[in-house]
Structure formats: C-alpha cells, structure tokens
Amino acid sequence: MTEKSGEQTNLLFIWAIVAVATIGGFLFGFDSGVINGTVDGLKIAFKANDIGTGFNVASMLLGCALGAFLAGWLSDRFGRKSILLVSAVFFFVSAWGSGIATGSAEFIIYRVLGGFAVGAASVLAPAYISEVAPASMRGRLSSIQQVMIIIGLTAAFLSNYLLAKFAGKSTAELWLGYEAWRWMFWIEMVPAGIFFFALLAIPESPRYLVAQNNIEKAREVLSRLFGAEEASRKVTEIRESLAGDHAPRLSDLVETQSGKVRKIVWVGIGLAVFQQLVGINVVFYYGAVLWQAVGFSESDALLINILSGSLSIAACLIAISLIDKIGRKPLLLIGSIGMAVTLCAMSFAFLSGSLVDGTLELSDSAGVVALVAANAYVVFFNVSWGPVMWVMLGEMFPNQIRGSGLAVSGLAQWVANFGITMTFPIMLGTIGLMGAYGFYAICAFISIFFVMKMVHETKGTELEQMQG
Predict the structure, then answer these.
(1) C-alpha R_g of the chain
(2) pLDDT in tens, 345-403
(3) CATH architecture of 11-202+243-465
(4) ∠ at Cα 198 (155, 2), nearest 5°?
(5) Distance between CA 127 and CA 140 in Å, rounded?
(6) C-beta of residue 313 within 8 angstroms of C-beta of residue 147
(7) What span, in angstroms and rounded, lies between the C-alpha atoms of 20 and 10?
(8) pTM, whole model, 2 decimals?
(9) Which are the contacts of 71, defined by CB distance < 8 A and separation ≥ 6?
(10) Per-residue DSSP letter, 8
C-alpha cells in the first residue's frame, strides 16, 4: 500500500495505533452505557427522587465537559498519549469507586472522575488518530472510534443484562454480598487496565512532537508510519502550518484583525451541540427506563438495548465504508433527515398511548411503530452524526488551533449532553414522551439547515491544508 507520494505506508503500525487509541472509545461507550442498568439500584441505595436520580445519572457529564475542555489544552502541553494515560487511570478508579459508593455524594465524585476520562478520550482519540492516519483513509480510521463507542455501549448493555439475570434483578445480591448493579460498574476495571498498558506501546503524535520542537522524534515516528522521504516532507509541512511565534493557545480561536471568534469554531460548536440535541443519549442512558415506561419488563428492556447496540455497530460499519467515498457532509444530511422523520414517528406513537397507574401503555400497533422507529433512529444517527461529528472535530481545525478548537467544541458537546440527560426525567414527568421526542425531532430538522449552510467538506484534505 502506498500514498500518493509513492512512499511506503506502514498500515500494520497505523492499525495497531488505531486499535489502542480506540480502546478509549470502548471505555467511553461502556462508561456511558453501564448507568443504564443501574438506575433502579441507585434509587434504592441512595433513596433518591426523580431529580436526584437524574443528577446521579448525569453527574458523569459534568466531568466529561471538564475533561473535554481541559484535554485539548493539556494535550498541547503534555502530549496526546500522556493525557490518554491519565484518562485510563481515571477510568479504573471511577469504575471501582462507583461500585463501592454508599451515598450520592461519594458516587457523584467517582462518576465525575470517570467523566473526566470519558471527556478526554472523546476528543483526544479521534484527534490522535487523525494526526497519524493518511488523508485518503483518515475518515475510515477515525470512524472506528464511534464503532468502539457503540461496542462499549453494547458490551455494557450485555453485561448489565447477564448480571441482572444471574442475580434475578439489578437490585438483588450477586457475589460477595454486593448487589448486581455494583458489579456492573466493577466489570469496567478490566478494559481500563488493558487500555493503560496498551497505551505504553504506541508513540506520541508526530504533530504534537513538531509543535514541541522535538523534530527528530517526530521524524522517527513519521518514518515508521510513512517512510523516511515522506517523513521529511510532512515535518516541513507541519512546521509551516504552525504559527512560528508562539505555542498553541485558546486566544488563537479569535481572529486577530476582527476580534471575532473564528467561523470554524462556531461550526465545531454547532456540530457538537446538535449531536446531542437530537436526544441520542436519552436512548443510551435511559433506554431501560424508556422501554419499561411503555410496558416492557426490565429483562425485555435490557434485551432491546442489546438489539439497539447491535444495529448501531452495523450502522457504524456502513459509515466507515462510505465516509471517504461520499464525504462527511452528505452523511450528515442523510442522518439529519432520517432522524427528523423517525423521531416524529416515535412522537406520534407515544401520543396515541394512555396512562394507566402512571405508566404509558401503547396499543400493539403503536408499540411496534415506536420500537421500529426508535431502532431506525439509532441507525440513522450511527451512520451519520455519531461517527462523522467526531471525525470532523478531529480533522477540521488547522494544526495551530486543533487542541483549543477541540477543547471548546468538546465542552459544548458535553454541556449539551448534560442538559439533555438531566432534563429527560423532568420532561417525562411533565410533557411526556411525546413532548420530549417532539423537541428532539425539531432539533433534528433544524440541523438539516445547519449542515447545508455551515458545514464544509473535509474529505481527502491533508491536516496541514485545513483553513480556519
């Protein structure tokens, strides 16, 4: 396999780096999905009401926002690999602490710590991959992050289902006198440990090394990736793309002459926020609650989560096959249109239901519509906004502002995630499922026009050629 320059590209080494970096995506997904099966246990153990439970579930997202914001800046100072190593340690400690917690305050501290790890991994893994991948296959390789996120989610759903089944239910005692929901958290310590030791075997990002003026080390890494001749060319291009008078900083996001925030930053923030406003994480975090609310048993609800996760993986694989062929923008448009339609279908299905003893009951036909539309919605998301948003954030910013642009966009993404997650139980108790999903449908519809007007294609463009 060769690049356009004719130099030998070490695909085996590149794939090894991607495999390690995307374990962070797996942990991102597992940590996000594990909470799905523990909601009932948290309510009982911590004697929490709906608002309290909502905050226990959403508390991780505060750490995510902080982690995403600081990770870009910290990685510009200490390196992409170094901050990913720190995140691996945080994943491990959070998994242990969340399971051992005896009260809401203690639980929230550990979940925020895990959230920091998730936030850091969410922005650094795709950025790191984009900085070592050839332009011709960068979209496919960066999209693997989303596949691993969904695999992590599905693994958490499957783990939750099996542990609850072995114990009888999530709140029942399982092993060593501890309830099943606590073991759901502890399982995560295994992949967290693997992530830490695997990271020790991969190199630092060559673009970070050039920014730190560690030219020889950068040339060594690039030579292993693309060959000696191509490495020298890329080192020169990277140096030219970086402002020579100062290290990367947040103030680079503002245009010097006009004093306005660069347009590319607003595009990044818009992509990050719209990915959450369509309500996808309500399915991830509250899937079991949602399906129990429309009449399914806890066991059936957890099985539906596994089905949704499997469909998500298939959709991400489709995205990988298309993203470097048809581009990022067409996939975003397809996803926005598909999500708007399926969310509307879900809203109408929920509208036809009736409340019986506080539980929404649907007719057989409406239940089928809701189930099919929900899974179609998940497919549209994961063939488009799921992987493409992270790919674009990792590649669309010029080298000089990549860390800072990721910091601001990542912060916006997780703040929006927190808002959507925190408000869902409140919306469920006030305007109901129909109102909540109607709101998400409106946001999906608006995102169509955002993509058409604001988003520009990045397919096949070298990182050094990105303009901000």
Answers:
(1) 22
(2) 888 877 776 545 555 566 667 777 777 888 888 889 988 988 888 788 877 887 667 77
(3) Up-down Bundle (1.20)
(4) 100
(5) 13
(6) yes
(7) 16
(8) 0.72
(9) 83, 87, 119, 120, 123, 124, 406, 407, 410
(10) B
